[in-house]
Amino acid sequence: MSQNNAQDSPSTFKRHLTKHSTLGDDTRYVNSKRQRQNSQENVEEVYNNDERIEEWIEPNMRHGITFNVNQAGNDRNQTRISKQAINYATDCHFPPIKIVCTPKIQNQNGAGFVQALTKHIEKKFKNENPTCKKLLAFDAWWVNSEGDMMVLTKCIEIFIHLCILANYPHEINNIKIEPLLPKYLPPPFSILIKFVHNHISIDEIRQEVKEKYISQYSCNELIGTKTNRTRHVRVDFTDRNDYNTILNNGQISFFSQLYTVNEFLEASKLVICSKCNSPGHMKKQCQLNYDRCRRCGCDWETGNHFECAIQCHYCSGEHLSTDYKCPALADYRCELVKELKRHPECLPEHVQLFIPAQCRDRNDRSHVITNY
Ligand SMILES: [Zn+2]
Ligand SMILES: [Zn+2]
Ligand SMILES: [Zn+2]
Predict the structure, then answer these.
(1) What is the distance in A from the centroid of ligand 2 to the CA of 69?
(2) Interatomic CA distance for residues 305 and 337, integer angstroms
(3) What is the pLDDT of residue 144?
(4) Which of 15, 94, 230, 281 has the fewest CB atoms within 10 Å around its CB?
(5) Closest ligand by atom to 324 CA
(6) Which ligand is nearest to the CA of 318?
């Protein structure tokens, strides 16, 4: 794990990193024009599992495409999975939580604000998470340009605690607060109900689940799973007991029809360089000597790249070169999955990675990698 502190971090955010945070290395936060404009979008891009599931349902694989960018330690110009790519794929990435403040706060008041917030949640958190050894603190926090507080944690227990509105005070240091919570919880808190008939509305499903499992956090159709007759539904729970109970029951009924309940599995994440748009390394390690436009593939410094024609510089398809639907990225992900299969010990304990159908061996049809 690399170590960073606020001084050598490349970010323009005023951030406060802990000693062991890898955040400074994170492509989502690098000092890049394009990334800055879309920082929130990118966080969601990384976090949105639905998109990943969707792209594997419509396979569009081509073979033999490699990334011909010289990468550190890659002298033969072929796909090689770096340690960094492995770490990134298996690391937990929770989105930062935005706490809207009225009135807006100044950066110099941030420390006092965070301290008061931590103090408020401490007692309840410790009661509810007696086994959590982590110090109750954030991996990073910063005041954004709108004067709202952003907090980020890599600890799943703290993250879940922050996803429950009732755990927040109404005010901190006389500032009214309104936390904006993420749409989904991390996959270890999500289940999947497959092939639910379209005539049952999502509201009816939500109500039905909520009656039996009160900690339901969200209930949504899984993008890309809808057919004329059915679709898959993802349900997230803040309470581990509800999650375990519904999985152990293995079934749930809507209007007297039984449906099977499955774990919601996560696809591996790709680290994509914000300078050259290749997977497997970050900007700091990039060996390309110009910023490559992810729309047209040309030098970002020359010409107007807000309206240039979109043509992927890997496959010539009509998508951004960083789009997960690019067959070159799909190939890369398969290589990554194979490498992870060889090294399941890289996975944190509670993480289970989904193996897309295209990446499974003929002899080994298992669809999940776990570290146990
Ligand atoms: Zn690069
Ligand atoms: Zn361009
Ligand atoms: Zn492409």
Answers:
(1) 18
(2) 33
(3) 92
(4) 230
(5) 3
(6) 3
For residue 60, report the distance from its CA to the centre of ligand 3, in Å.
11
Burial 55-74 (b: 16+ CB within 10 A, else e): bbeeeeeeeebbbebebeeb
Question: Over the chain, what is the mean pLDDT?
Answer: 77
What pLDDT score was predicted for residue 371?
64
Model confidence pLDDT, tens digit, residues 93-102? 788 999 999 9
The ligand minimizing its distance to the Cα of 271 is 1
Q: How far is the CA of 315 from the centre of ligand 3 (A)?
A: 4
Whether the per-residue pLDDT at 190 is higher than 50: the answer is yes
Distance CA(133)–CA(290), nearest Å, equals 44
Q: Which ligand is nearest to the CA of 299?
A: 2
Q: Which residues contact 143 (CB under 8 A, 6 or more apart)?
A: 14, 105, 106, 107, 109, 110, 149, 150
Q: Rounded to the nearest 5°, which phi and psi values hold at 98?
A: -95, 130
Beta bridge partners of 179: 99
How many angstroms does the Cα of residue 320 sit away from the middle of ligand 2? 10
Q: How far is the CA of 236 from the centre of ligand 1 (A)?
A: 36
Locate 22 and state its tokens.
């890898």
pLDDT at position 47 is 34
H helical segments located in 18-64:
33-37, 39-47, 49-57
Q: Of 76, 75, 96, which Cα lies nearest the Cα of 21?
A: 96
Q: How far is the CA of 309 from the centre of ligand 3 (A)?
A: 14
Q: Which ligand is nearest to the CA of 321?
A: 3
Per the model's pLDDT, the better-predicted residue between 61 and 45 turns out to be 45
Architecture (CATH level 2) of domain 187-267: 2-Layer Sandwich (3.30)
